[in-house]
């Protein structure tokens, strides 16, 4: 007798990092959801893949059984656990790669800086960055949407939030962007890793500088002056782990969301017109883009004891990939899931995750998306995309986004702006 | 109609605020949902039903009362 498909004895052929998956993920996930919503693949030393909405959400809500914790030794550049498959050889992110009770302490320490009231204080800055970035290119009638606009705006807002010098945005954004899609075998991989290390080094330097100054209104200074738990400040490693999570979490994901959304509006001018005429629909469109494009395609957990998930038997030590993107296309939850519908009722998407680790930065992401799209609508509404020269990420297993995207538009005037770039 | 939010389930997804901004908001301390009203006005009931269905955490419970216009 042959074992059921998708068990360890009879694995499926699946690799979320493969170019085939990037090309074919929608039908591939549809088939997996209907045949085996939790299936085993032998790739990357073996892991489960959860594709059904129920399976993904159930695992995400049980951090005791599905751990996010990561061990990393800088000496050997090795370790295990964490939320990426394959393992990423950089220090863990905080709070994302921790479990309760540590998670509660870490998340509680920064929560207040990410609530709507706090995020609103960054809206003016986001608008100014978006305005200044368009001023740079508006007279020329062309730009790279990703590298000149949807990339820099979140990078600059995130740097402002952290307390990093804005002038270095390009050096920060580029390696973090490249880290997401550069395969380990690539010629420039070592260079990309070095670039990421430089980012952390700058965070460390700025943190130390803030330790010597009175408290300022940014995260690194907050870390320098406040106690995270019972009379203790964060260690430098912890400061860097927070920086890692917030910078990587904030920089590339919002870029991907906005770029994807703008491709849809470009390809569907009648939908673009509808949004321009009815700005109150923009938040609903945004949530539908989050569902449909799901910038964080999927993330991993580590099974802590033998358990069952939607019929699959998981062992202690197994790794599992939770495909948010697939959950968001589950026809059992979303009617007509492969169609974008701004009028969708009760959009229960999990693009920001589910359970305790659910995105802390979503209010920032939502605000930045609004400000970027508003600038596009106001100043370059008739932009055209040169798809022949645009590049998607070759692998979308962690972040599903665009590397670059040349666009053209009717040249226009610069507008007054406090920032000149 | 009344609603309750389960604080152990709510993680601040914010979908309730999108569908029923007159009833829900995200709090200033931890970003979780809070109620703006104790009793749901009849004209907000449809929005609240949408919000309840849109919560990925299933953190919202609707308590229907006599005289409520929705079943
Ligand atoms: C469209 C944009 C974004 C998407 C799709 C997104 C998605 C996600 C997802 C799926 C998680 C859950 C991780 C897990 O379950 O392991 C998460 C967590 C997180 N995100 Fe985001 N995110 C976005 C924007 C941001 C921004 C702008 C920031 C920071 C300013 C941010 C910071 C974080 C942090 C710190 C966590 C970890 C929270 C925890 O572990 O408690 N994200 N995000």
How would you portray this structure in words?
The complex is a heterodimer of chains A (421) and B (71). By secondary structure, chain A is of the alpha+beta class. Chain A has a single domain (19-408), classed as Orthogonal Bundle (Cytochrome p450), CATH 1.10.630. Chain A contains 15 helices and 14 strands. Chain A has helices at residues 19-35, 53-60, 102-110, 116-120, 123-137, 145-150, 152-162, 169-181, 189-211, 219-225, 236-267, 269-277, 282-293, 324-327, 362-379, and strands spanning 38-41, 47-50, 66-67, 70-73, 78-81, 142-144, 299-303, 307-309, 312-314, 319-322, 384-385, 391-392, 402-404, 406-408. In chain A, β1 (38-41) and β2 (47-50) form a beta hairpin. In chain A, α8 (169-181) crosses α11 and α11 packs across α12. Chain A starts with 18 loop residues before the first helix and ends in a 13-residue tail after the last strand. Chain B has a single domain, classed as Alpha-Beta Plaits (2-Layer Sandwich). In chain B, the strands form 2 sheets. Chain B has a two-stranded antiparallel sheet with strand order 1-4. The longest helix of chain B is centred in the last third of the chain and has 10 residues, at 45-54. Chain B is built from 2 helices and 4 strands. The mean pLDDT of chain B is 92. In chain B, a hairpin with a 6-residue loop joins β2 and β3 (33-35). Chains A and B meet through α13 and α15 of A and α1 and α2 of B. The complex binds protoporphyrin IX containing FE.
